[in-house]
Design a protein that fits this description.
This protein has 395 residues and is an alpha/beta fold. The chain contains 11 helices and 17 strands.
Length: 395
């Protein structure tokens, strides 16, 4: 059994304590300076301690992070981005083990210790992207825990054979299958959703649907998703990614849908993109609609932006939604940490005994200060192992 004492840290900006870790789990929290065991002592220097960040929406299979610059090309629409990626990805070796490893290492450097990642499954790549990501996770010896969503980026019904690939991915361990704009991409929202829910029920997996369609078209698809989630008994296993339309609807329509989403047990993930309509996050919190934050793709053929820092995504969420008070700023950080537990099937993700020892130390006065400045991660512990020290990756 390996022991580690992370001494003199301030969980969530509170009093100085020592966090005692054994075999990758936090086992005790003691007042600072009261060590009586033989654990290796690591000086936390009075730094702010947060749980590891949980990236609830990523695409680690198709970044060109760490590779030579690739200029933006293609059309800016969703279909345009799909077409451009399909035409160009082989040229840049996407997907690859090296690419996925580079992204996961960058996640770790910024303190992300768990992620839910969408991995492209289509007729061109088959299930190769999933195999690559699993190999990258193994190469990092589980420092980042990864949940896989088999994602049909190029459509479902319009690409015969994709449903079979999704079914196979689910049978081989993907925790969820994805969907994409059932109305505007497949032009058959009922057909796409019925097919996805059929697989989910048979295989016992979740569903995560990218929904970019705006306004009333998006609202209509929420209704279809809610109806099928209730019928299938999949409360807690269905997620909407992006869902921009929710912020565009009238207040009355928003309220109706939010209540129904909460009652159906449907969650939400967002990357809080600049220029999108703010979500009714207070109403969602009251209704029990869980919200997760993610980076989406970083430096890929969709967009040159992103660096894997989820704390900056939380800051973007705070700015987009006009958060100002300490309580609200802290809530944004909670979305990026403890609230992300459900998206990676963790019952407990916090600085408490019994939780996996995923800990991030930051030189900040308090949580709001950490959010608005997003300083470097001084130390990152992942599963009880120190993976970042003085801001530098140790693996």
């Amino acid at each position: 059994m390996t022991f580690l004492r992370l001494a003199d840290v301030r969980p969530w900006g509170g009093d100085l304590v020592d966090l005692v870790i054994a075999d990758g789990v936090i086992t005790d929290i003691t007042p600072a300076g009261t060590a009586a065991d033989q654990a290796e002592r690591v000086d936390g220097r009075g730094l702010l301690a947060l749980p590891g960040f949980v990236n609830a929406h990523a695409h680690v299979d198709k970044s060109w992070w760490g590779q030579p610059w690739v200029s933006y090309g293609g059309q800016p629409t969703t279909q345009g981005r799909i077409a451009h990626e399909r035409a160009e990805r082989d040229k840049y070796g996407i997907p690859s083990v090296a690419g996925a490893t580079a992204v996961l290492r960058e996640f770790l450097r910024h303190g992300t210790t768990a992620t839910r990642t969408h991995i492209d499954v289509d007729l061109g790549v088959g299930l190769r992207g999933i195999a690559n990501v699993r190999e990258a996770v193994a190469a990092l010896d589980g420092a980042v825990e990864v949940e896989i969503v088999a994602f049909p980026q190029d459509g479902v019904l319009r690409r015969p054979g994709v449903l079979d690939l999704l079914d196979q991915a689910a049978a081989e361990g993907a925790t969820s299958i994805g969907g994409l704009d059932p109305a505007s991409i497949d032009r058959d929202p009922v057909g796409q959703l019925d097919a996805l829910f059929d697989i989910a029920v048979r295989r016992g997996v979740g569903i995560d649907i990218h929904l970019h369609d705006g306004g009333q078209l998006g609202g209509f698809q929420y209704e279809l998703i809610i109806e099928r989630t209730r019928q299938a008994g999949l409360a807690g296993k269905v997620n909407v990614s992006h869902g921009f339309a929710l912020g565009e609807l009238s207040a009355a329509r928003q309220a109706e849908l939010v209540d129904e989403l909460g009652a159906a047990g449907i969650s939400w993930t967002t990357v809080a993109p600049v220029g999108s309509a703010p979500l009714p996050w207070r109403e969602m919190r009251t209704a029990g609609v869980a919200i997760g934050l993610g980076t989406d793709g970083i430096r890929d053929l969709w967009s040159p932006y992103g660096d894997g820092d989820l704390l900056q995504v939380a800051r973007g969420f705070a700015r987009l939604h006009g958060l100002r008070t300490d309580a609200d700023l802290t809530y944004a950080v909670e979305l990026a940490t403890t609230a992300g537990a459900r998206f990676v099937h963790r019952e407990n993700h916090d600085l408490v005994p019994g939780a996996r020892a995923d800990i991030v130390l930051i030189d900040a006065e308090n949580v709001p200060d950490a959010l608005v400045r997003a300083p470097r991660r001084e130390l990152v512990v992942a599963g009880g192992r120190i993976v970042v020290h003085n801001g530098e990756l140790q693996m």
